[in-house]
Amino acid sequence: MANPGKLGVDVIINNISENPCCIHGPTILFERFHGNGQSRQFYACSACRDRRDCSFFHWADQKIANGKKDLWTKLIKESRQGKSHEAEYKRLEAIKALPASERSYCTSCSVLLGGTEKSSHTSCALIFPITNKQLSHPSTFLPPKESSKLEAQYLFTSNSVDVIIGMLQNLQASRVLCIGAPRIHEAITDTPQLNMVSLLMDIDDRYCSFFSPESCLRYNMFNHHFFDEEKAKNTYKQFITENENLVIVADPPFGGRMELLANDLNKIQNDWRIARGLESETELPVLFIFPYFMEPQVIANLPSYTMLDYQVDYDNHPLYSSGPKSMKNGSAVRVFVNQPRSLFPLPESEGYHFCKLCDRWVSISNKHCEKCNGCMSKDGRMYRHCDLCKKCNKPSWIHCSKCFRCQPQDHKCEVQAGQKLRCHVCGCSGHKRRDCPKRKVSDTTFSEEPKKKKKKKKNKSSYPQSLEEERERNMNIFS
């Protein structure tokens, strides 16, 4: 049973660019639902799902006090200090002239070092030597960031890179916008015979040390924010304006809100149409990498997308790979596309075959069902048709006479039997909680954040004076 006091959080897609900003760009307006038909809206970071990574929090029904506004203005300004992208790339050119033995990379400071510079990093973790191949493929030696609620990095295997590059070739791509897919960008930039040009847009600023400002932008895919602002926006707009075959490859964090990812892709689609003077129904081809079990959310937000059977493998993910600890039925990650699935042949060497009836390539275990008129498997197993359900289901599921459909063997009928999806606020069916006529957006402060006296509000010293103090103050509000 769900906690009646907290019924979850929804995303409010508004004019995101006008929302208050944190160090990761414009924040997102969320709505937390409580019992008794009440809800309350608040702003929080778009990129971070853990308050320890970004502590920005503000109730939407309260004005941002000057003390808090000054603090975040200061933090944003401090986050933008450091070497410019141009200076970092110029430094790379100088380091390339050195032999590999004199090149090193400090993982503690996230900086390339040349010659004797590493002598000033004796207490740091260093990687050396650095070869030319590594300089053009930094993802092969940069330690992946492991924060699962911020920018967890999982990198395609070389085999999956080859298959995705093959998909781009089948689409006759000449320009590729890589959103969080550094290995695709590396493969394109290091293989001139592909006749493709790539622009990498990734939140990881370390890639700015290895690629030029014209081929790499620091970018937040959850709010369409460019960290280098107008200069980066102009590079992006120029890239999508060129009269060539553009394709997007997007490999987002799997824990991110699908509503925001879809909103971002739709914004890029719209920018592309405007730049090229195209009709609104013209679609920019997209390869969207996401787990198969998120298919309902993907289709709900991007209804023109369909899922390919290809199982995407990652080098450094314990489950989504081909290693001994991988999932029993192979990786759960798939490629979603907005083009006809017949355009994407899959490797026969891995057991994929073409189904003429479905007009698409499917996995070896995905057998065509005459009753369903399709290849119905999603998870890599051979599905079983149930005549009572009149559909194919996972082979481990059984038909439940109380639920009137196939269910996992350990399901609970008293929770699922014959019940329609109901609104969390009023308990009625036929609409979602966001559209509930009884929903009230509260203009009062809940008990977890007691209302402060006016005297304290006027006292500037009561406001957090540092990021650490702000983080401590807001840690429990989002939960």
Going across the biggest sheet, name each strand in turn.
13-12-11-10-14-15-17-16
The helix content is 10-25%
Low-confidence stretches: 443-468, 470-479
Biggest β-sheet: count, sense, barrel? 8 strands, mixed
The tally of beta strands, per DSSP, is 26
Span of the ends, CA to CA: 18 Å
Provide the β-strand percentage band.
15-25%
Shape: globular
Instruction: Briefly note the structural class of the backbone.
Output: alpha+beta
Rg computed from alpha carbons, rounded to a whole number of angstroms: 25 Å
Instruction: Kindly report the average pLDDT value.
Output: 85
Total of helices: 11
Explain this structure:
By secondary structure, the protein is α+β, with helices and mostly antiparallel strands. Helices cover 23% and strands 20% of the residues. The protein contains eleven helices and 26 strands. The strands form eight sheets. An eight-stranded mixed β-sheet has the order 13-12-11-10-14-15-17-16, sandwiched between helices. Strands 1, 4, 5, 6 and 26 form a five-stranded mixed β-sheet that branches. A three-stranded antiparallel β-sheet has the order 8-7-9, covered by helices on one side. Strand 7 and strand 8 (111-114) form a beta hairpin. The protein is globular, with a radius of gyration of 25 Å. The two termini are 18 Å apart.
